[in-house]
Design a protein that fits this description.
4-stranded mixed β-sheet, alpha/beta, about 140 residues
């Protein structure tokens, strides 16, 4: 399975979001590269949204499955104030929390048919990444 990340972020957290993403993305990609989900999805794409409260409404969360490309597309909001006031390790953990939540959001996509085992595999990969990044 492939993994891809990007972000929609306020300029005040631009460098921090980019730094956290650059820490997380290669580790998750490595952990799931040989994973085959029973639902058939082949790519997990996540866009992190880190915007102040007055702007977050302009960036709604999205959850969709593109059957033709087998791509699960998720746009997940992160808590702006908490992210901005956290240190690097805290920001990485917030990003990992959002990935775990993105797995929950996958369960809401009717056309995906994500199984409990699929969700467990993905969440377990997030927790393995957390252990690796926090050691």
């Amino acid at each position: 399975m492939d993994f891809w990340m990007s972000s929609e972020k306020h300029i005040s957290v631009n460098e921090a979001v980019t730094g956290a993403r650059k820490a997380v993305e290669p580790i998750i990609a490595e952990l799931i590269k040989d994973v085959e989900l029973s639902c058939g999805a082949a790519k997990w794409s996540v866009i992190s949204i880190v915007m102040p409260d007055e702007r977050v409404g302009d960036y709604p969360e999205v959850r969709r499955y593109h059957k033709s490309s087998k791509d699960i597309e998720l746009r997940v909001q992160l808590p702006y104030n908490e992210f901005k006031s956290s240190n690097g390790a805290g920001q990485i953990n917030i990003m990992l929390d959002s990935l775990a939540r993105s797995v929950d959001l996958m369960g809401e996509i009717k056309s995906l048919k994500l199984t409990g085992d699929d969700a467990f595999i993905l969440k377990n990969s997030v927790e393995k990444a957390r252990l690796k990044l926090n050691s």
